[in-house]
Amino acid sequence: MRRTTPIKTRVLLDGLAMVESPCWHDGRLWFPHWGTPEIVAVGLDGRSHIMARVPPGLGHAIGWLPDGRMLVTGRHLTRHERDGSVVMHADLDRISPHGWSELTVDGRGNVYVNSIGFDFGTEMAERVKEPTRSPTGVIALVTPDGRARQVADGIAFPNGMVITPDNRTLIVSESLAGRLLAFDIQEDGALGRRRVWAAGIWPDGICLDAEGAIWTSTWNNECVRVAEGGEILDRIQLDRPCFATMLGGPRRATLFMMANQFLGPDRFDEMLSLRSGQVLVAEVDTPGAGWP
Fold first, then answer.
1. What are the pLDDT digits (tens) for 178-219?
2. How far apart are CA 77 and CA 99, in angstroms?
3. What residue segments make up the domains of the chain, in order of their start?
4. Average pLDDT of the chain, as a whole number
5. Which end of the chain is more exposed for a tag (fewer CB within 10 A), N or C?
6. CATH code assigned to 9-283
7. What is the 8-class DSSP label of residue 176?
8. Rounded CA separation 175/181 (Å)
């Protein structure tokens, strides 16, 4: 369904270093506060709290196992235990030695996690110039019994991921190729029938709604709602880039947009010092669906 009236936004939090990879969990929006060691949760009233600490830096994402324990990506995929300890959730070094970024956990407890497959600090600026050169990104699956294996490769910078409510389709941002990819999820969790879901939108972090549309970003400081095939159903103009989206709130119809100034792939230290990170919110018509 296409909305006919403009969507109003408001700032929920600002003055942050860099905000990314949000999840709606336990009645609040949780997100890694990149450039700091913080995992932050914020309510719709704007009150925020530090919920956990991780190694400082960039690239963290979070998710939860069905039993409520939190997973965090980074150099490794780690698990936060109820007693506060942090342990390795699965050894993924043999799949990619370059660390892990986005993750999602489906309704069966399968964990899908991706890696860009190259050293961000030394190669990102060059790869932006040749965005689809030798794509190295991979997706790994960690099953509930702890076994890990690679289930997709050859992706030009895999980014945000969502899984449909029936656990049958995984959609991932292929950011450097400017498109969304879709995979069928097989009974054993493997991925098959790779295809382009939508092109020409330059997506980053994504979320799925109950009509099967995805909220994501464009290079034009927009947050857009896109249908399979690429039709843009709604646009929200922002004054800075949107790096990720999430649907949450009581009806799961509050759209959260993680926005930051962007100076380029080789100037992240300057970006973090700007403290331009904002969490924006807007009420939309169609509630969220699927995972995360």
1. 999 999 999 999 999 999 999 999 899 999 999 999 999 988
2. 8
3. 9-283
4. 95
5. N
6. 2.120.10.30
7. G
8. 10
Phi, psi of 260, deg, nearest 5: -145, 150
pLDDT at 35 > cutoff 80:
yes
Angle at 270 between CA 263 and CA 224, to 5 degrees: 35
Joined tokens for residue 223: 């947050």
Token code pair at residue 23: 């999840």
Distances (CA, A) of 213 to 30, 128, 190, 206: 22, 27, 23, 10
187 with 173: CB under 8 angstroms? Answer: no
Is the pTM above the cut of 0.90? Answer: yes
Tokens matching residue 274: 């700007």
Alpha helices (runs of H) in 102-187, residue ranges in sequence order: 120-129
Q: Determine the Cα–Cα distance for residues 222 and 225; give it in Å rounded to an integer.
A: 10
> Containing H/E element for 274?
helix 268-274
Residue 62 one-letter amino acid? I
Instruction: Report the amino acid identity of residue 53.
Output: R
